[in-house]
Write a structure and sequence with these properties.
6% helix; 294 residues; single chain; five-stranded mixed sheet; 3 helices; mainly beta
């Protein structure tokens, strides 16, 4: 026998939902959801039973006019707390009094009625059911879930000023990292950012630590942005991975017009001084930056 949720008193109609919340936590799904509502009631009344739902689509978009603000505890991405209702939320779609078919299953001591809803669009769903049986007893219940089939997007944009020989830069590289997702799991963010000198010794930069600290990001809509500036001479490598709360891994990182986005060299010294510092004697017909970092 399933674990039934009794409301009011034991004789009232009893409900179960599949899928249901776990320990009061909202559940996230990276696929279409077939949502089943079951009511255990001997004297079930189809006419006095209502199965409705509210749907808030994931359509929040950032625009140039969106105000980017530092991420505070009140705006941190994370699990949605079970709301009282989505009904008053801007942009919500309400589905009421729609046709519902109830399937009856005869049990030894009662009747079990079930109905299915199919949720296929990304967004938040609040399901509400209320019933009055033939003897006048009332009961109601609700459940909340999120469908998110869209992977997070990561965009890495860096300046190409001073580019030479495909991956060498004589200017500071400035730009930003942007992550876009409606249900971002920031705790899953993995960043590999290394800077090394020609001997392979690590060079410390603050961004290596700041990138995994949400306080250094700004938020506008579903977008989280981190400004970046690579000014120290060295050999750079950067990679990023992140998931959302439904478990979707990020799509391939978008780089746009950025050249050598993940592996590049910054050398802001003059060609002659740079070679001396790197302990090189002559070009020998090679590009000086190839000689310095090759």
């Amino acid at each position: 026998m399933e674990n039934w949720l009794s409301l009011w008193i034991i004789q009232t109609p009893r409900f179960t939902f599949d899928p249901s919340s776990e320990s009061g936590q909202v559940r996230y799904f990276a696929k279409d959801v077939k949502f089943t509502t079951k009511i255990l009631e001997e004297n079930f009344s189809t006419n006095d039973t209502h199965l409705n739902y509210n749907f808030l689509p994931d359509t929040v978009k950032s625009s140039p006019s969106s105000l980017a603000t530092p991420v505070s505890p009140s705006t941190m991405p994370g699990r949605i707390l079970h709301p009282r209702s989505l009904a008053s939320t801007r942009g919500v779609q309400q589905f009421k009094n729609h046709t519902v078919t109830w399937k009856k299953e005869k049990l030894s001591d009662s009747n079990l009625y079930s109905s299915e809803l199919n949720f296929t669009e990304d967004g938040q769903y609040e399901v509400m059911v209320d019933t009055t049986d033939l003897s006048g007893r009332k009961a109601s219940a609700s459940n909340f879930l999120v469908v998110d089939k869209t992977p997070p997007k990561i965009r890495l944009t860096l300046s190409n000023d001073g580019l030479a020989n495909e991956k060498y830069f004589r200017e500071v590289r400035k730009g930003q990292i942007e992550i876009e997702d409606a249900n971002l799991d920031f705790s899953s963010l993995q960043v590999e950012l290394t800077v090394k000198d020609k001997a392979g010794n690590s060079i410390s930069i603050d961004d290596a630590d700041h990138l995994t600290n949400l306080a250094y990001w700004t938020k506008a809509g579903n977008k989280y942005t981190y400004p970046i500036e690579f000014s120290k001479d060295g050999i750079y490598h950067i990679s990023l991975k992140v998931k959302d709360l439904a478990g979707n891994e990020n799509a391939p990182i978008e780089v746009g017009e950025t050249k050598a986005a993940f592996d590049f060299v910054v050398d802001r010294k003059s060609p002659h001084r740079g070679l001396e510092d790197w302990g090189l004697g002559s070009f020998q017909g090679r590009n000086p930056l190839d000689q310095a970092f090759g």
